[in-house]
Amino acid sequence: MLQLLYIQNYAIIEQLTLGFSPQLNIITGETGAGKSILMGALSLILGGRADSSVLRNTDQKCYAEGIFSIDEKPEVIAFLRANELEFDKELVVRREIAASGKSRAFINDTPVTIQQLKELASMLVDLHQQFDTLELGNAGFQRMVLDAMANQLPLLQLYRLQFNQWQKAAEELEELRNQKAGFNKELDYNRFLYDELEEAALAENEMEELDKELQLLSNAEDIKNVLSRLHFDLKESETPIVSSLKQMANQLQQYQSFHAQLPGLSARLQSAQIELLDIANELSGVSDAITSDPQRLNWINDRLAIGYKLFKKHNVLTTAELLAIQNNLQQKMQAVLNIDEAIAEKESATAQLYQQALEIAQQLSTARHQQAPELEQQVNQLLAQIGMPNARLKAAITESPLQADGIDAIEFLFDANKSNRFEPVRKVASGGELSRLMLCIKSLVARSIDLPTMIFDEIDTGISGEASKQVGIIMKNLASQRQVIAITHQPQIAGKADRHFYVYKEPVGETVKTNIRILSQEERINAIAQMLGGEKPTAAALENAREMVIG
């Protein structure tokens, strides 16, 4: 509910503060007094287009601020939480326009984007202006009307959850099929690469080990010569090093009792002699083990040639990387075998989800078909009540493929003159007809769902007398359940107000500014009498106005 509207420096409005009733608020005034300007300022806090040309004083910013009560608005609270905006029982929405044309939006003093402001505003205010036909001609709005009147919104929410699950499964199925197509395209090439690696049959670290063995075999003779010479020098020469060390140790041993360090030195000579003897024996064993094998050498070269060719082909440097590629290729080929099973399982799950969604969609469709005649009857009765006795609305429902809202394509058709030539509302209804039709429909929908604050800007153009009275009655009934704000020229509608605002121009020095005030009961009677009979109303007009106000 809009509790307070504050406007500053907008067009001919210098500064205004309006406090609204929670029920029916009527705004009247002379033509050109600034009623439409008031709506323009209000549209700013609803995310409307900002233009620096509206600034009354270009030295100051333009402000439009609305204070809303959000006690019973769970979707508003959910939006504020989702956007990490602080909130209390009251919500302050503000828009500022600088002389440069730059505008800023705030929700509870926190800067927000215009898109965020628009999204929130749609939950707070439903602004309907004459010739505003987009919503009424919108298939989504038409479907919502039927579902609301049939009390099917909870079932629609359940359906959408099911529909989204089916869509997700269908997307996953399509992805699997695309994967299979890609797999099949690559399968032959992957199999060729895998067979080539499998035929090579490389063992773990084989290339690295063969490379070492190649180095050994290529230098076998030189290595054996070095080993033999070392063995000879250590053990078999005329003065072998091992024998010389043994003699040195023996010579030192006979004197080791004469000095404290000699036993240690003697022991070290003995250890060196034993270690060198062991080395000499190992050198001999290693030399014997090394053989020159030309056949083995050729085989290793051939094997390495195969391996290095594969290294180059796959752009790797190690046997481990090559084996990892082989394993990956094997998994890809196995995936081709597994994907058919996965596709079959996903097809079954998708079909089941589709069937579940279809069953709920059929329930929705049945309820819509049942509700359509009742909607037509109620709307047509209201149209006759407000001065359109020959107008007819028809809710045409045709079957469509499964979509986000079910299996129904819904189109409101309209015949203004009992011609039985029904055409889509958006094509044939005039601005005034659309406005009154929207009022009738929204008054019916309001019985089923919690609509936001509803604002009607001169939707009563082109009607008078009894039709105006009936529009006033509809608005009054509508306002018993939610806040309604209406700008009107019709006294019959103004007489139904719970709070009556009067917009007027006021000369200030050499300028003119717009002002607005709440009328007392006597002021209301006089204002309505003027709407009925001119600036100087007759006694009859005053009496008529009194009856409209007091009843």
UniProtKB/TrEMBL annotation:
Keywords, sorted A to Z: ATP-binding, Coiled coil, DNA damage, DNA repair, Nucleotide-binding
Gene3D superfamilies listed in its UniProt record: P-loop containing nucleotide triphosphate hydrolases (3.40.50.300)
Record InterPro entries: DNA_recomb/repair_RecN, P-loop_NTPase, RecF/RecN/SMC_N
GO BP of this protein: DNA recombination; DNA repair; SOS response
Entry coiled-coil feature ranges: 156-223
GO cellular component terms, semicolon-separated: bacterial nucleoid
Residue ranges of domain RecF/RecN/SMC N-terminal in the record: 3-506
Keyword Nucleus: no
Listed GO MF terms: ATP binding
CDD domains according to UniProt: ABC_RecN
Function: May be involved in recombinational repair of damaged DNA.
Family that this chain belongs to: Belongs to the RecN family.
NCBIfam families, A to Z: recN
Name of protein: DNA repair protein RecN
Organism, as annotated: Filimonas zeae
Lineage: Bacteria, Pseudomonadati, Bacteroidota, Chitinophagia, Chitinophagales
